[in-house]
Amino acid sequence: MWSSEVRNLPTWLRTPVGRASEISTVQKIIKQRQIHTICEEGRCPNRGECYAQKTATFLLMGQTCTRACAFCQVDKGHAPMLLDPEEPQKVASAVQLLSLRYVVLTSVARDDLTDGGAGWFVKVMETVRELNQETQIEVLTPDFWSGKNAEIKQKERVELVTTARPACYNHNLETVERLQGPVRRGAQYDRSLSVLSLVKEFNPAIPTKSGLMLGLGETEAEIKQTLQDLRSVDCDRLTLGQYLRPSLDHLPVEKYWTPQEFDQLGDFARSLGFKQVRSGPLVRSSYHAGD
Fold it and tell me: Comparing 35 with 171, which gets the higher pLDDT?
């Protein structure tokens, strides 16, 4: 967010980043272990609050994504890193040191890997549980759509992660169907819906979750249709937050939705049957995930 845009931010978005003590403690531990959290990579405005509630989101499989989504500040454009064989243990020990009660595991897209990284999610989950038996683990995965016979492979990869029994399976639609192309390069609306549908097919007891960023040019009618589409695949949980432009190289903000509008959309979502809804300008995918 550059200076002119910061000055033009609505007052409801000008909030402190978080509690310095909690942020400093987590930063020190993850830096020592050379691991990554999306909380830090994305400078999430809620990270201090989440750290204080013993929740954090780890970014697996390096910092370089094989896709080039126009909203995301994660590194891209060159070859991804080799997987760090010590990453599962590093994450598990960090969870133990921080006494985290709820962990979200996410990753960059790794279309270069034979299984899209599905097996790595499982390996990290298993290692975290060995040291932290009481910690619940939510996953936020990519769509796992890559390689020949991508549809079949997606199904196998989602089944592999689902069989590892996450506390919640999250996959974000990010935006409405009309804007998928310019916003989520390499992803498709129906492919993302299929991830959530497959989880319920393999284990209906696992809660599913998805999220949207608002402010990319979508209409209220399109948002409501998207929420209905999510409920059609039995998605249980929802996050709605304001898109904030990471840099001048990213998509501009078309609209700042007001807190009142977020409240109204949240009420609409609850009327559709979502069991948990977080809707507000600063809400992100893992906001209050452990509640």
Answer: 171
Contacts of 281 (CB under 8 A, 6+ apart): 10, 12, 13, 241, 242, 256, 257, 259, 262
Taking the mean position of all CA atoms in its chain, how far away is CA 186? 17
Report residue 33's pLDDT band, with 50, 70 and 90 as the boundaries. Answer: confident
Give the pTM.
0.88
**Locate tokens 């691991």: which residue?**
35
Q: Are 70 and 250 in contact (CB under 8 A)?
A: yes
Mean pLDDT on 119-124 = 98
What structural domains does the chain harbor? 18-279 (3.20.20.70)
Which residues, in sequence order, are CB contacts of 226 under 8 Å at separation 6+?
173, 176, 177, 212
Residue among 70, 14, 42, 39 nearest 256 (CA): 14
